[in-house]
């Protein structure tokens, strides 16, 4: 079972920050074989969703206020689950929780993401719709997707 919490950057403990950066590096840099600079100056202004299975961080996302990633809406980014829990539905739970948190904290029914193209169906099933064209980010095909709550 996974439990979620949301914290601003300055409320993260040193241990939580370390675990968050470690999980992102394990998946985005090592597993996806994609050397990139994770620290992009967006973490400090964002909210961070942490998903724990007992005391182990197994999922996280970053909720980015409007005007930081996109001018027209807040964003959800750095969505990641540990390889050991990917078949347990935690990714879907993480995104549903993250969407609700964006709506609550940023008072927005519109959310944007830069999704890896291979996850298109996953995000569509959550209500996101592709916008625009496929683009490369860190040599990985991405597409901008929009969630609009009716």
Account of the 3D structure:
- By secondary structure, this protein is α+β, with helices and mostly antiparallel strands.
- The model has no long low-confidence stretch (mean pLDDT 96).
- It has a domain at 3-106: Aminopeptidase (3-Layer(aba) Sandwich), CATH 3.40.630.30.
- 27% of the residues lie in helices and 37% in strands.
- The protein contains 3 helices and 7 strands.
Sheet with the most strands? 4 strands, antiparallel
CATH architecture field of the domain at 3-106: 3-Layer(aba) Sandwich
Model regions low in confidence, pLDDT < 50 over at least 5 residues: none
What strand line-up does the widest sheet have? 1-2-3-4
Our estimate of the beta-strand percent is: 35-45%
CATH topology name of the domain at 3-106: Aminopeptidase
Number of strands: 7
- Give the overall form: globular
Give the CATH class of the domain at 3-106.
Alpha Beta
The CATH homologous superfamily of the domain at 3-106 corresponds to Gcn5-related N-acetyltransferase (GNAT)
The number of helical runs is 3
| Global mean pLDDT | 96
- Secondary-structure element sequence? EHEEEHEHEE
Whole-Å distance between the termini? 30 Å
Quickly give the structural class. Answer: alpha+beta
- Computed over alpha carbons, the radius of gyration is 14 Å
Helix content: 25-40%
